[in-house]
Description:
Layout: H1 7-16, H2 21-39, E1 42-45, H3 47-60, H4 68-71, E2 78-82, H5 109-116, E3 120-125, E4 145-146, E5 149-153, H6 159-166, E6 172-176, H7 183-189, E7 192-195, E8 216-220, H8 223-233, H9 251-254, E9 264-268, H10 269-272, H11 278-293, E10 297-301, H12 309-324, H13 343-354, H14 357-370, H15 376-399, E11 402-406, H16 422-427, H17 430-438, E12 442-449, E13 456-462, H18 468-481
Parallel strand pairs: 2-3, 2-6, 9-10, 9-11
Antiparallel strand pairs: 1-3, 4-5, 6-8, 7-8, 7-12, 11-13, 12-13
Amino acid sequence: MPHRLSLMQVRERLAAGDILPTEAVQACLNRIAETEPQLHACLTVHSEGAMQAAKSLEASGFPQGPDSQKLLPLWGVPIAVKDVFCTKAMPTTCASRLLENFIPPYDAFVVERLQNAGAIIIAKTNLDEFAMGSSTEHSAFVVTANPRDVEKVAGGSSGGSAACVTAMQAYGALGSDTGGSIRQPAALCGCVGLKPTYGRVSRYGMVAYASSFDQAGPMARTVEDCAMLFSVIAGYDERDATSAQLPVPDVMAGLSRKDLSGLTLGLPKEYWDGGLSAEVTAACRNAVRVAEGLGARIIEVSLPHMRYAVATYYILASAEASTNLARFDGVRYGRRSQKEQSLLDVYTNSRSEGFGEEVKRRILLGTYVLSAGYYDSYYKKASQVRRLILQDFEKALTQCDALLAPVAPVTAWKRGAFIDDPLTSYKMDILTISLNLAGLPGLALPVGLGETSRMPVGLQIMGKAFGEAELLSIGNVLEKALPGMERC
Ligand code: GLN
């Protein structure tokens, strides 16, 4: 069954000619047809376009040459991308009625990179509208189910990508992480997800939610697969003013590490104290013991300002969202209200009809914290606290090589459980958002099933700026030492 292969396995077989690109695409399309009625992971399945792309790769064949695998590392490999990345061959909806029929005139940087590496875009995946949410229940179109229990949420906002790779609909996927949207759905579904350092992957063509937080990253079934995708999408791009002009280390070479000896790993006590479910604590503590057994020195560290993280994040991210979403006015992009109206009504009605509840809530909150009279006490204060949180991380990371903590305080919950309770759902982002406030990288690694829920638990490995190679190498060692998670 080719859909069961890992990305690394399928790419080898494609390059060797043992599997043809059309066969790889067909395997994914079959799997999508089989699982989509329950999962709703995809908003667009690019059946014909993907098959067409596969045929044209096949017609020319895998180029024979010493550097071919370097130049075309994903030749013929079907990959899904979150529907927040612009694709000129497919709609880009951000799971919003406002962009329901929007087809961008260009591809996002990461989509270009995937295609230049030979990958085939097979689907655009579901998300919380404009990436605002933690369960993919805020999509305007469908709710994505967790492949391990369809009564439960897939997490969010990249729940579509997490469900898609976990259910083996594609060999890998891209997500975006503004406050945890790669790591949390990866943890809840049981796949691997990497949020790179801010600036490591270009945001060009990724629809903005909160520009100083947003970061694109890979999701896959193994750490190695994730590293491969990361190596394809990372790097400088002059079209993103915040793109880092730094060389990207060879992350694949870094995976040769055999154990964790010589490494000091810090447990930030604020992440582990209180608020975690017993089964999450147990599974993550077990992973820490395994790390210790592999030679790591474990110490406790402190991030004292973390208790302000939720408030700080929701003030700043909403402020940025309110300005970023001002461009959706019914004139330049997407949906325009059909009511008879004045110019002002065009704006008001298009936005009222186009945006969902959660997006409106963020715009209202963001406009409020930026308004004259409140700017200093909310936006400015939150910006100052953001700096303190970064300093906490910098200090902790002088004492150790990386930090270990759970990704989410609980495993996947029943669909609908928090839909009318935004505050509780915001609070559950507590373990992921600090890292976005600091701009640092984090890897979510599945470490087992919760004893009571039998749903996946994710461990978060957080590190120094631009230290993705280190995180991937630690994750790879741990992944091999932990018992494998059965496939769904
Ligand atoms: N759950 C967080 C939010 O709603 C993070 C979302 C994200 O990372 N895109 O803002």
